[in-house]
Amino acid sequence: MKTIKFVSNDIQEKNFATAVRKNVNDYFRANGISTKGNLPMLLQTFTMFAIYLVPFALILAFPMPTWVVILMTILMGIGMAGVGMCVMHDAAHGSYSERPWVNKLFGASMYLLGSSVFNWKMQHNYLHHTYTNIEGYDQDIGSKGPLRLSKYAPLKKIHKYQYIHAFFFYGLMTMFKLVRDFNQLFEFNKEGLTKQQNVNPYVEFVKMGISKLLYLIVFIGLPILFTSYSWWQVLLGFVIMHWVAGCILALVFQMAHVLDGPILIEPNEEGIIETDWAVHELITTSNFARNNHFLNFYIGGLNFQIEHHLFPHICHIHYKDIAPIVEKTAIEYGFPYNSKPTFTSALLSHIAKLKELGRQV
Asked: Could you tell me the pTM of the whole model?
């Protein structure tokens, strides 16, 4: 993988980067609080695990009408996405707790989603957070098959109506990763990322295979063994759960980067981005619905993506408090602070951007 460098001679950009870090750090020092999780974070964790696992336990324990089971699987999908956004995401960034073992423990909740902790850290923590909205590097805007999420990706006829069919394919995200993880790990190893992280790829392949097998045994095998539902009914419930979770997760992430405001970037021939990294994160990211308390709780502060990208090691529980500081600093130094006032406005903007990318040469 070609190395990308952020090089800026703009003194205003460098001053912003210094000032925003100082201002946010001063907030935590002045209030004498930790940048990590707290009691509300623990309550949020308990709630998300309950939404995910309690319906599953009820399905195993009690006979239910089919329509009730379908509602339960939808609820599990909602909880599955909640665990990913509120628990795993912070823990994988090391922002859940001051204690590394706690972060590792809750980061392992990724296995309950059927995926790989190592792959997630490489794709999200490293590639997405370092190379946000950069074509060919940020896999979160990777344009493959029926979706085109970058203006630098090839345009195909199927992309013309992606603003309609994108949401169906968003729902396939977590199911796709059940299989895709193996190929992705192979790609990471080929690019030298496993060696860079001092990870033995063979051990990681074995760990991945065992964890996925155990996941399938629990969420498919147990219902087949301990309920009266046939194998195809269990598989249907499994697909419904994953589709709901995948659609929520993909939509939340895309609404922060692929919409009006954030820009899509391509490095020059020397692999240089002529922008300071902090400013790059600011101009490639957007917040939405900052005053929506339900969203703040359910999606783990991912509607505060600007704060998250600038300070990924700060727990999301604090984003609503540091957002005014970041916004004020950005305005003082003359940089845009992208933010949509509501969930609906962000969704409509994302749909419009999908339509634009589906027809833009």
From this structure: 0.93
pLDDT 10s digits, 234-288: 999 999 999 999 999 999 999 999 999 999 888 888 888 889 999 999 999 999 9
**Contacts for 60 with CB less than 8 Å, ≥ 6 apart:** 222, 223, 226, 227
**What is the model's pLDDT at position 99?**
96
Range of the domain at 176: 5-357
Number of domains in the chain: 1
Structure tokens, 73: 């699987």
Please, what's the b/e burial string for 303-316 (b: 16 or more CB within 10 A of its CB; e: otherwise)?
bbbbbbbbbbebbb
First to last CA, the chain: 26
List the structure tokens of 347.
């969704």
**CA distance linking residue 304 with residue 318, whole number of Å:** 10
Encode pLDDT of 217-238 as tens digits: 999 999 999 999 999 999 999 9
